[in-house]
Write a structure and sequence with these properties.
Number of helices: 6
Strand content: 5-15%
Structural class: mainly alpha
Shape: flat
Strand order of the largest sheet: 1-3-2
CATH topology of the domain at 64-148: Arc Repressor Mutant, subunit A
CATH architecture of the domain at 64-148: Orthogonal Bundle
Order of helices and strands: HHHEHHEEH
Radius of gyration: 22 Å
Distance between the termini: 59 Å
């Protein structure tokens, strides 16, 4: 008969499926019972507020948050569509739709790859670089306005 060691933080480290302390990010989908702890719910509210802040700041530039993410991914140079999917963690069809819209707007250009004509490469146009720069500036200003708002005091930046 094997004697089971008492569960301690040290032995729990060996169990990769169980955190050694409460993080607020536990998998509650497999458990029945009480609601997730407040810190998890609070985190979700902050994510929603940040998404709303970014979305609102991008509206004057006729960009969605996901399209902005694609432009940011391309700022370092030409990439294949599959690399964009990997970087943004979005599906091929959703990236393809976004690229089509960005190409129609004149912000990106899609071309067949020189080495493998089956592949498509994507790069920013000059207009795309300008759009990315202007939108990024607006996002920075939106974030600075939130941080610099004296009504917030020492509260969390997004907890307005």
């Amino acid at each position: 008969m094997v004697k089971k060691a008492k569960d301690t933080p040290e032995t729990a480290i060996l169990d990769l499926h169980r955190p050694t302390h409460h993080t607020g990010f536990d998998d509650y989908s497999r458990q029945s019972g009480p609601e997730p702890p407040l810190d998890w719910a609070s985190w979700l509210v902050q994510v929603r507020r940040l998404t709303a802040l970014l979305t609102t700041a991008l509206q004057p530039f006729d960009l969605t948050l996901e399209e902005y993410e694609v432009l940011c991914t391309l700022k370092h140079g030409t990439l294949g569509q599959s690399a964009i999917c990997d970087c943004t963690d979005h599906s091929v069809p959703s990236v393809s739709r976004r690229l089509r819209r960005l190409e129609i707007a004149g912000w990106v250009v899609r071309q067949q790859a020189k080495r493998d004509r089956r592949q498509i490469t994507v790069s920013l146009t000059e207009r795309g670089v300008d759009k990315l720069r202007d939108a990024s500036r607006a996002l920075q200003l939106a974030a600075v306005d939130r941080v610099a708002d004296p009504r917030l005091g020492e509260q969390h930046v997004l907890a307005k």
